[in-house]
Design brief:
The complex is a heterotrimer of chains A (about 280), B (about 800) and C (about 150).
Chain A lengths: L6 E4 L3 H10 L3 E4 L5 H6 L7 E4 L9 E4 L2 E5 L4 H6 L1 H6 L1 H6 L6 H6 L2 H7 L6 H7 L3 E6 L2 E6 H4 E3 L2 E2 L6 E8 L5 E7 L6 E12 L2 E10 L6 E2 L1 H7 L6 H9 L15 H20 L2
Parallel strand pairs in A: 1-3, 2-3
Antiparallel strand pairs in A: 4-5, 5-10, 6-7, 6-10, 8-9, 11-12, 12-13, 13-14
Helix pairs in contact in A: 10-11, 11-12
Chain B lengths: L18 H5 L15 E7 L5 E7 L1 H5 L3 E5 L1 H4 L31 E2 L5 E7 L2 H8 L3 E6 L6 H5 L14 E9 L2 H6 L3 E13 L7 E7 L4 E6 L4 H12 L6 E4 L15 H13 L3 E4 L2 H7 L2 E13 L5 E13 L12 H4 L10 E10 L13 H19 L3 H8 L8 E2 L6 E2 L4 H12 L1 H13 L3 E10 L7 H6 L8 E7 L5 E5 L8 H13 L6 E4 L17 H28 L6 E4 L2 E4 L2 E6 L1 H10 L11 E7 L8 E10 L6 E11 L6 H20 L31 E4 L17 H18 L13 H11 L2
Parallel strand pairs in B: 1-12, 10-11, 14-15, 20-21, 27-28
Antiparallel strand pairs in B: 1-5, 2-4, 2-6, 3-5, 7-15, 8-13, 9-10, 9-12, 13-14, 16-17, 18-26, 19-20, 19-25, 22-23, 23-24, 26-27
Helix pairs in contact in B: 11-12, 11-20, 13-14, 16-17, 17-18, 19-20
Chain C lengths: L1 E8 L3 H8 L2 H7 L3 E8 L2 E10 L2 E15 L3 E10 L2 E13 L5 E12 L1 H6 L3 H24 L1
Antiparallel strand pairs in C: 1-7, 2-3, 3-4, 4-5, 5-6, 6-7
The chains are: A alpha+beta (about 280), B alpha+beta (about 800), C alpha+beta (about 150).
The structure holds flavin-adenine dinucleotide.
Chain lengths: ~280, ~800, ~150
């Protein structure tokens, strides 16, 4: 459990981090280290250099701007969990944060690190998809903004290029009811399946619904067919049953020693149903 | 002199005196030993479950800067050619085939993670780099993982010396089982898998060896539960004279049986230190611990039961295929045989029973004792059997237990196969207390309501008796254990009356520094804080056998009490002399020797100690100094027992098990420290629940360990533990002077079947009668899904 | 571990066959292929640096094409090892005529994987294998269809 040799440099600004990325071959960003350090120790990854961004204060913090929550990529899970702003503006994020790992992990691991890592069993990707977060990526030629739906390209893969940095995440902040339900792997505590759901309803009619699922497949996804089946309809237990029962249609689920594909598909259906039930009281 | 106030040390919930040290980072674990110039050892390990080694190229690693040496079997075999097995179990006729267990792979690897080469370098990073530079060319062979497949015709042969991969056949027979089966009203056949587990002590294994070429002495710091056994095995296997070896097992962070064995990693640190002339340290990573440290359990059991219509079991026949893994570890052959087979009828009066054990080699990490060792395998089997019988005859499992129990007037009770005589017990009392605690009648009524509402709720029982306090030596020798099972104590009362105790047993989490001080404080009328307990250093402590099999209190505590009584006997002579009365005229009352009829005339142990060290005013024939030693060999084992009840709800849609209530009534005889007792029960239950629900070492068919880290091997977390309702009955053991029975393993033994029985009770309305452990949600859901189609 | 897949090519079977088995195409399309040398009939020694995202490892091994019946089917045998572990596998590949002169390539793979990384990260391996297979055939598809036009 000793990493291969690497150089280390702490950056103190986004510009410095980008400059280091540009000027060093095979450099990697180090945020909370909760995914990267284990991989280094196992020598699964052997970068020549680590650029520590945890000391860049501008990457850290939560604020509200034009009805949106702006969360710095270096904000820790714990900071999100404890934020009254988040609790008010995004019940979904507030419900998810305390379900990540344990307190120690949450104190170190970051929102941005988790999204950039794109672990198939990670929790945040589901929330980012469900709230249609905008991810701001800084690079040599300024910044670009990517919607969550375009951000994840596959297992452990995103659109962030090797010389880029995820700087902040923008989340709608009008307090839309939302919830994250997680079936924890008994060993790792990661999501066997996790579902992030937001829904509004008015006079017994469903307004907007978003349903995103992590853990079930190599990359988190939105259950669009189920969303369509619900949007605009009158709330009823039957409707929710029906929509949830198709939430896993056509999925090619992951399989491991804990949970074969068929079980993951079952969890998707059950958990989508339960999340909808909690939000829509049916 | 003032008379000490009574301390009531024994039986009090005194806080663990070792904790301030351990929880503030001031403990001294093996990995905390930093010697000047120490080099780091690391191992190149097999990526295959079974393969022929075509070649090993160490040249690049050897040439790497900072590497001190790279060694293969050829280099080390002159120092140590094989790891000794200390329990070549008896009762195997001529079937015992103990395969050679080389310290590094000899021409072939037989399990995933087997050490192939040893690299020693100036520091850990260099060693890790060099490990990557050793090139081993393997020719993969088919592997065999399943215990029954291993002995089936045509299975890949693991050792030429063990045809058919059979390590031994072992049997115990009591009564006429076949006859009773033939006449039984009801018969049940069932196969049960007791899965392979990984002990996962918080502290992985570690060794530091410092060989002194000038004196020929070696000091070995090692994570051991039994430092004297380690010293003996090091001497026997390497030829270093025993008196030149000092083994120190200071603070040890959990053992659970996996730190009983003597391992190659430890031996090879000594080899390398001798070879290189510097101290050599080795410290396992967690994923290394998962392949290099002994696993536990791993049985497949075929069971045949015969019973009357009322559910009285008349016959029990068990055939168990038990895996030793790829090589015979230190105590391995004794675990699935004597520690399993003797107790096959548990707390029940089953007049006809047979147990046949086939020990097998498979391409897996060697197994050895794991918390409970043999007894959980028997208890789980028996408790599942009781519930299956109850279901078959349509009776409440409580009544079937009651019907089959050994009754309290049957003690001492000899089991049908004649191997054991249970000391004392009142099994119904513990059962009744557990029923009372859960309010059984209401609980069943509640279950009916819940079921009517569509919920899957279940109530599970587990009644057990276990064999603890391993000794006596005569029994151990008869079972083939290459050592005595006595234990030892030295009590040194210093001139001021403060006391240092040296015990031959070992604490690796149990809290001996507290509980043993309580024993001595009571016996000598002292405060607990005036007694310090030393263990784990063969140069400080007289020969002792260490800790496993819940033996510390019964055997080590017994030795301590006997030594205390020797102190008292000598001190009494001195007290009488100082009080100027005849010895018969004083008595030990309220922590002092007092003159009969005038209790204010008194001398305490410190008074006597001072006189003993001043030594000028001692009675005739009494030697100076107050220090005594005792080796205690118990007359029999002790037999703790109890009943646990678990209430669960199973989520019909996800297969998840939620424990609603957990009640444990245990009888471990006299209780030295209720808080420590509770701690042992808590930890034990956590491990037992984990076997029922979560833990499993999973190999694929090629012998790859798929649960190779904590990402995939599910140890219990505090956050998922239910509230535990603990209670006890006290039936003192007549077999040792303290009346204690041992509690280290009870929780583990009892809880596994209680949980599984509860889940099966919950699923019984669906017609599901058995699912093998662990009851992972996916597996339970699949069974529910299949049952409802 | 089973790795199955179906890929459609906009070309006839002979054409697809010729590209799939062309050493140059193989070298260009095998993900992470560093070098590939012919050592015997239809047998190559190969060095790959493959993985997912940053988790890459270098493997040395042998690839051989066996039981080839142009343009119907062939088997590809792979055997490699590297620091992260080892792999042995056989892929049975069938070329089936499909509508409008296109070809469907059906892959039935069976691989055995082992080593330290598999033991700690087995959850990533099957999806990674599938992903790499997809990368391979998509690259081939580009080549086939590119040269067809
Ligand atoms: C014991 C344990 C339990 C855990 N349990 C869970 C769980 O239940 N659910 C869950 O979702 N996660 C879990 N995690 C993972 C945890 O949430 C990590 O914090 C997270 O996945 C990665 O965030 P990090 O800040 O630690 O990133 P790092 O580990 O530092 O980096 C991860 C990757 O992202 C890249 N990266 C990081 N920040 C940026 C950035 N701003 N821009 C571009 N690239 C970047 C790095 O280069 C690296 O490749 C657990 C981790 C541990 C150790």
């Amino acid at each position: 459990m000793h990493p291969a040799p690497f150089a280390y440099k702490a950056a103190h600004s986004v510009e410095e981090a980008l400059e280091l990325l540009r000027s060093h071959e095979d450099a990697k960003i180090l945020a909370g280290g909760q995914s990267l350090i284990p991989a280094l120790k196992l020598r699964l990854t052997q970068p020549a250099m680590l650029i520590d961004i945890s000391k860049i204060s501008s990457l850290r913090g939560i604020r509200r701007e034009n009805g949106k929550l702006i969360i710095g990529s270096g904000t820790t899970h714990r900071e999100i969990e404890k934020s009254s702003l988040v609790a008010e503006a995004s019940p979904l994020l507030a419900s998810l944060a305390p379900q990540i790992g344990d307190v120690q992990v949450r104190h170190r691991g970051t929102f941005g690190g988790s999204l950039a890592h794109a672990d198939p069993a990670g929790d945040w990707p589901a929330a980012a998809l469900a709230v249609d977060a905008e991810l701001v990526i800084a690079g040599a030629h300024g910044t670009r903004t990517v919607h969550a739906s375009d951000f994840f390209t596959g297992m452990l893969s995103t659109v962030i290029n090797a010389d880029e940095l995820l700087t902040e995440i923008r989340v709608p902040g009008e307090g839309t009811p939302g919830i994250y339900l997680k079936h924890r792997n008994a060993a790792s505590g990661y999501a066997t399946v996790g579902v992030a759901v937001t829904a509004t309803h008015n006079h017994g009619r469903i307004g907007t619904v978003s349903i995103a699922v992590t853990g079930a497949t190599p990359v988190a996804f939105r259950a669009s067919a189920a969303e369509h089946a619900l949007t605009g309809h009158a709330v009823s237990a039957h409707l929710l049953d029906e929509a949830a029962s198709h939430a896993a249609d056509g999925l090619e689920c992951l399989s491991d020693i804990h949970a074969p594909a068929a079980y993951r598909a079952q969890l998707v259906k059950v958990m989508v149903r339960r999340a909808l039930g909690k939000l829509l009281h049916a | 002199m003032a008379v000490a106030t009574p301390t009531r040390a024994f039986g009090a919930s005194i806080r663990r005196r070792e904790d301030p040290r351990l929880i503030t980072g001031r403990g001294k674990f093996t990995d905390d030993i930093h010697l000047a110039n120490a080099a780091t050892a690391m191992f190149v390990r097999s990526p295959h479950g079974h393969a022929r080694i075509v070649s090993i190229d160490t040249s690049a690693a050897s040439a790497h800067p900072g590497v001190l040496g790279v060694y293969t079997f050829e280099n080390v075999k002159g120092f140590i050619s094989g790891m000794p097995c200390a329990w070549p179990t008896t009762n195997t006729g001529d079937t015992l085939k103990l395969a050679t267990y080389p310290p590094l792979a000899d021409g072939k690897v037989r399990y995933f993670g087997e050490a192939v080469a040893l690299v020693v370098a100036v520091d850990p990073n260099t060693a890790a780099d060099a490990v990557d530079l050793v090139h081993v060319d393997y020719d993969p062979l088919p592997a065999v993982i399943n215990n029954e497949a291993a002995v089936a015709p045509g299975a890949p042969l693991i050792h030429d010396s063990a045809p058919g991969n059979q390590a031994f056949r072992w049997s115990l027979v009591g009564g006429d089982t076949n006859g009773a089966l033939a006449h039984a009203d009801v018969r049940i056949s069932q196969t049960l898998v007791n899965q392979r587990l990984i002990a996962t002590p918080l502290e992985t294994r570690c060794a530091v060896a410092d060989y002194n070429p000038a004196s020929g002495e070696v000091t070995v710091w090692v994570t051991s539960q039994n430092p004297h056994i380690h010293r003996l095995l090091i001497a026997l296997s390497t030829g270093i004279p025993e008196h030149k070896i000092r083994v120190i097992a200071g603070d040890v962070g959990g053992g659970f049986g996996a730190k009983i064995p003597y391992y190659a990693g430890e031996a090879l640190c000594i080899f390398a230190s001798k070879e290189l002339g510097v101290p050599v340290r080795w410290s396992e990573s967690r994923s290394e611990n998962y392949v290099a440290t002994a696993h536990g359990r791993d049985h497949i059991q075929h069971i045949e039961v015969g019973a009357t219509k009322e559910g009285k079991i008349t016959a029990l026949k068990v055939t168990a295929y038990a895996s030793l893994g790829a090589y015979p570890s230190t105590a391995a052959p004794g675990v699935p045989t004597w520690l399993f087979g003797c107790i096959i009828q548990g707390p029940y009066d089953i007049p006809n029973n047979e147990v046949h054990v086939i020990g097998v080699y498979t391409n897996t990490t060697p197994t050895d004792a794991y918390r409970g060792a043999g007894r959980p395998e028997a208890t789980y089997m028996l408790e599942r059997v009781i519930d299956l019988v109850a279901a078959k005859v349509g009776r409440d499992p409580v009544e079937v237990r009651r019907l089959n129990f050994v009754k309290k007037d049957q003690f001492p009770f000899k089991v049908a196969n004649g191997t054991l005589t249970y000391d004392s017990g009142d099994y119904e009392l513990a059962l009744d207390q557990a029923l009372h605690t859960v309010d059984y009648t209401h609980l069943r009524a509640w279950q009916e309501e819940q079921r009517a509402a569509g919920k899957l709720v279940g109530i599970g029982f587990s009644s057990y008796v276990e064999i603890c306090g391993l000794g006596p030596s005569s029994a151990a020798n008869a079972m083939g254990f290459a050592g005595g099972l006595y234990d030892s104590a030295t009590i040194r009362v210093h001139p001021t009356g403060k006391v240092t105790v040296f015990t031959g047993v070992h604490s690796h989490g149990q809290g001996h520094e507290t509980s043993f001080a309580q024993i001595v404080a009571r016996d000598l009328g002292l405060k607990v804080d005036d007694v310090d307990v030393i263990h784990g250093d063969t140069d400080k402590v007289q020969h002792g056998m260490g800790t496993y099999g819940s033996r510390s209190a019964a055997v080590g505590g017994g030795a301590l009490h006997m030594a205390g009584m020797k102190i008292r006997a000598k001190a009494q002579k001195i007290a009488a002399h100082l009080l100027e009365v005849a010895e018969e005229d004083i008595e030990w009352v309220d922590d002092a020797f007092r003159v009969k009829g005038s209790p204010d005339k008194a001398k305490t142990i410190p008074d006597c100690a001072f006189a003993a060290y001043m030594a000028g005013n001692l009675p005739a024939g009494v030697t100076p100094v107050l220090e005594e030693q005792h080796w205690y060999d118990p007359e029999n084992f002790v037999f703790p027992f109890g009943t646990h009840i678990c209430v669960v709800e199973v989520d019909r849609e996800t297969g998840e098990t939620h424990i609603k209530r957990y009640v444990a009534i245990d009888d471990c005889g006299e209780i030295i420290n209720p808080m420590l007792r509770d701690g042992q029960v808590h930890g034990g239950i956590a491990q037992g629940i984990a076997q029922a629900l979560w833990e499993e070492a999973v190999y694929d068919e090629n012998g790859q360990l798929l649960s190779g880290s904590l990402m995939d091997y599910a140890i219990p977390k505090a956050s998922v533990m239910p509230h535990l309702e603990l209670g006890h009955t006290v039936t003192p053991s007549p077999h040792n002077p303290l009346g204690v029975k041992g509690i280290g393993e009870a929780g583990t033994i009892a809880s596994t079947p209680a949980v599984v029985n509860a889940v099966m009770d919950a699923l019984s309305p669906l017609g599901i009668h058995h699912i093998d452990m662990p009851l992972r949600p996916a597996k339970v859901w699949a069974a529910i899904d299949a049952a409802s189609h | 571990m089973r790795i199955d897949g179906t890929f459609s090519f906009n070309a006839n079977r002979e054409k697809v066959w010729d590209v799939l088995l062309d050493p140059e195409a193989l070298k260009a399309c095998i993900p992470g292929c560093q070098s590939m040398t012919l050592t015997g009939e239809n047998t190559y020694v190969i060095t790959l640096t493959v993985g997912i995202a940053q988790f890459k490892g270098t493997y040395d091994g042998n690839v051989s094409i066996q039981d080839a019946h142009r343009p119907d089917q062939y088997e590809i045998h792979v055997d490699g090892k590297g620091r992260p572990g080892w792999v042995r596998g056989v892929g049975k590949i069938r070329l089936v005529d499909a509508a409008n002169g296109t070809t469907t390539v059906e892959v039935e793979g069976d691989a055995t994987i082992g080593g330290p990384v598999f033991s700690i990260g087995s959850r990533f391996v099957p999806p990674a294998a599938k992903l790499l297979m997809g990368q391979f055939f998509n690259a081939m598809k580009k080549r086939v269809e590119g040269s067809a036009s």
